[in-house]
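From the shared-data thread, chain only:
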Amino acid sequence: MADEILLAEPSDISTISIVDEMRSSYLDYAMSVIVSRALPDVRDGLKPVHRRILWASQEGGFVAGRAYRKCAKIVGDVMGNYHPHGDSAIYEALARLAQDWSMRVPLIDGQGNFGSMDPDPPASMRYTEARLAKVANFLLGDVDKDTVDFAPNYDGSTREPTVLPARFPNLLVNGAGGIAVGMATNVPPHNLGEVVDACLAYIARSVEGGDAITTEELMQIVPGPDFPTGAIIMGRVGTRLAYETGRGSIVVRSRHEIEERGERRTIVLTEIPYQQGKDALVARIAEAVKEKRVEGVSEVRDLSNREGVRIVIDLKRDATVDVVLNQLWRHTPAQGSFPANMLAIRGGRPELLNLRDIIEAFVRFREEVITRRSKYELARARERAHVLLGLVIAVTNMDEVVRIIRGSASPAEAREALLRREWPIDQIRSYIMLVEAIEPQADADVYRLSDAQVKAILDLRLNRLTALGREEIGDELKELAGSIAALLHILADRGRLYEVMREELAAVRAEFATPRRTQIAAAAEGIEDEDLIEREDMVVTVTVGGYIKRTPLDAFRAQRRGGKGRAGMATKDEDAIVGLFVTSTHTPVLFFSTAGKAYRLKVWRLPEGGPATRGRPMVNLLPLGPGETISAVLPLPEDEADWARLHVMFATANGLVRRNSMDQFANIPRAGKIAMRFATEEGEEETGDRLIGVSLLSQADDVLLATRQGRAIRFPGTAVREFQSRTSAGVRGMRLASGDEVISLSILAGRDSGREEFILTVCANGYGKRTSAHEYRRTNRGGQGITNIGNLDRNGPVVASFPAHAGEQLMLVTDQAKLIRQSVGDTRVIGRGAAGVRLFDVAAGEHVVSAARIDEPDEEVATTLDELADARADGLTVDDGTGPETMDERQAEDDE
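Structure, as C-alpha cells:
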C-alpha cells in the first residue's frame, strides 16, 4: 500500500490552503445554520423546523376539525420526510407552537400536557396529541396553487415548500427567537389586529401614492409588542428604538394589585414578563427578601392556577408599598427588559429589519402570492372552459358524435375521427365569446376539437347528452367567464390586487384578532436609589473629628427635664458631638467645608448606626481635600419647588454674615462647588475665621446670632444684601467682645408674621431656658447685641440658642457621649436675662456640647401658644401639666 502511494503521479495530487479550506467549510456550515435552521423567514415568520411541522401536519391530514393525532406520529413524519435533526428538537418546537404563553396566536391545537410557564416541560410525545389550529389554515392556504416555490427534501424523495403563503405577518404576530452562528434574533410578539391594521395602512398609502408611510405613523397603529403573558411595557423609548433600527431594549414590568386585609397589605403579581419562568421569579424574590435587598416582606407564595398567575407577597405592618415595589422592580426579575433584535432572512440573506421593513416585505410577498395564485387559477379556468367548449359541441351535435363513435372499431379510431372532423363554428360562437381570448379559432368558419376536448367527450356520461346537460354546461361556462375576467382584472390592475389583499387581511382580523394584553405605561424615568428607601425620620449626628451617622429617631426615648440621659455615641477622648439635627431619609443635605466648598448628599446615603456607634468619617463620603473638614451641615427642603423663594444665610465665628440665592447651590457636582472664603471684613486677607452656621431664610425672616458669652443680636435678613458671588466673605453681622465668638445662627419669623416664637438657650453645664422672641428687639446689623442669658458662671458658656416650642422635643448630647431627649415644654418660659433651669444633670467634668430641636409632636404637652401668652401676661408660666406656678417660686426651686 505504501509503495502504491509512493508511485502515485504528482498530477494526481492537488495542493490546497488549509486556511482557505477551513474558511470555506466554516462559511458553508454557518450559512446552513443561519438560513436553514436558526433564523425565521421574514415572509411567513417561520424557521424551517416550524414550517416543516405545519406542512407535515397538512400533508398527514392533522388539520383543524379532524381528530387529534399522537405527537409521536407528527414528529415521526417530520423527521422521516423533512427534518433529520432529532426527534426531541422537533417535539420541543411543536410543543412551543401549542403554548399560549409562548405564542401570541398558537398555531398548533394541543391536547394533553404541553408544559407550563413555571416552566415545566411537556409530557412525552407518546402521551400528547395535536392537530393544526384553525389559524394555521391562513398560513398554509393556497400552498397547492403554485403560490410558493418547492424544493427537494433532504434525500430527494419528496418536495417541501421553501416558504408558506402566509395571509398575515406571522413574524410580528408570534415573534421569533434563535441563535445562529455569529448572530441571533429575538423578535417580540404583537397583537394580530394591530399588525393587520398597520399592513392595511401601508397598502392604502401605496395605492394612494405620495410619500411612503413612516415608522412614526406605523407606531400610531402598533404602539408596541403585545406579549402573550400580558404585563406592562414601561415607556416607549425602547420600543421606538427597536421599530426604527431593529434593536432596542423594551422594559417590561409585572402587573400587580394591592390587596388589604385589615392592617395587612399584600402585593399580588397577576402578570409577569414574557419568557420569565414563574418558579424562578418566585425563587429570586424569596432570595432578595432573605438577602435584605427587598425589605418589608414577610412571606412570598405562589398561588397560581389554571385561571392565571397569582404570586402573593405579604408585607409587614410597617412596610411602605411603593418602596417594596421599587425594590422588587430593581432587584428581582419582576421587572426586566426584552432585548429586541429583529433579524430575519430576506432575499436569502440575514438582515436587521425595522418595523416598516417587515411590513413592506410581507406586503411584497403577498403581492407575489396573489399574482401567482391568480395566474394559476386563470390557467385552470381556461383549461376547464376549453374542455366545456368541446362538450358544448358534443351536446349540440349529439347524433353525429354518437354515429362517429359507434362507427369506429376502437376508442383510438373514434378519437382520430373526432379530431379530423370539422364542426360548424356558428353553433358555439356565443359560448366562445363568453370566454374571451382563450380560443384563437373564434374567427374561423369551422372548429376543430383538441385532444383534451376529445378525451372529455369520450369520457362523457350519457346523462349529460340531454338538453339539461347542455344548459348546465352553459351555466358553468358563464361562471368561468366571470372568474376569468376577475382574474385578468387582478393581474392587470395593481389597485385591484391590493383590494384583494385588504379583503383577505380583514378576514383574518375579523376571525382571530383579540384585545391587547400588554399595557403600555409611561416611562418610570428609571428607578432611582432613593425610590428604594423607606421614608423615615432620622437623627443626623456630626462630631468634631468629622464622623457622621444617621440613627432612626425611634431609637431615642423621651425623658423628663433634669434626667441622667442615656449612653450615646462612642467617641474618642478628643472627639465630641458638635452637630445634630432631625430630618427625613429623603432630605437633601448641604455640607460646607473649611476650604469654603459645598457638597450635597441625601440623608439616606449617610451611614446608619445605633445611638452608641460613631458613624463613618465624612472624608470617606465626600471628596474632601487634604486638611479639609466639614464645618457646617444644612438640611434642605425635600421639595425643590420651595427652593426658589429661599436664600442661604452664612455666619462665621467672627460675626460675619452673607446672603446668597438658593439657586446658586441647586446644582452641585459630586466634586463640590466653591461656597465662600473667610476674612475679617469684605476684601481683607484671610484669617482664622470659621463657618459656624448656614441656614435658609425668606425675605420676611430675621436673623438671630448668639455668642458663647451670652450675647445675641437680631436684625432683618434683608439688612444683608444678596451677594452674587459665592467666594465673598460677607459683611459684619455682629461686633464681638474680646474672646467672644458667634456659636449659633437662627432664623426667626419677622415681627409682621403675627407668630410668637420662643428662643431656647442651652449652656455647657446643662442649664437652659426659653424666652419669647419678642424680647429680642430688632436692631441694626453690626451692633454688639443684647443679653441672651445670665449667670454664665453657673451655667457655663452658651452651647446653642435656637427657636423651639412646647409641642416639640429637645435632644442634648454631652462630650461624654451621653444623650437625653425631653419635651421642650418641660423648660419654662422666662425672661431674656434670667439664668435658666437645669435641663441635663451632667456629671463632674462633663459638658453639653450639642443641642437639637426635634420637630415631633409631644403627646404629654398640651400647652398652646395662646396659653403661654396668657400665663406670661399674668406673670405665670405653664409647666408640664402640673399647673401654673409663679416664676419666683420655680426659680427658687431651681436654685435649691
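The radius of gyration is 46 Å.
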